[in-house]
User: Fold this.
Amino acid sequence: MIGSCHCGAVEIEVSLKDGFATARRCDCSFCSRRGAIAVSARLEDLRVIRGADNLTLYQWGTRTAKHWFCRTCGIYTHHQRRSNPNEYGVNVAILEGVTPRDLGEVPWVDGVNHPSDRR
Ligand SMILES: [Zn+2]
Assistant:
């Protein structure tokens, strides 16, 4: 699938690991503000095909996850996960032909009590 930010500077090509079955929202302090639904893709299945130099990296907390967004229009495209660094979460709303409301009820991940923070 092809995905792009709002201004079109950044374009990605991605193959989803498990279609939209992995679609999740997260209620951690960052994701709840961001408000996006993410689906899973393996690292090797995502390529930034345009505008890699227009992506900005945001990290916080343990600085393990890498959140990428377009520096022009601010749209979050994808992030490398903290719970599984071999995976990206991809913003479903940037994907061509995908309407987030068609996904219906999307399960929430308990990001406040993140698995990586449990002992
Ligand atoms: Zn953009």
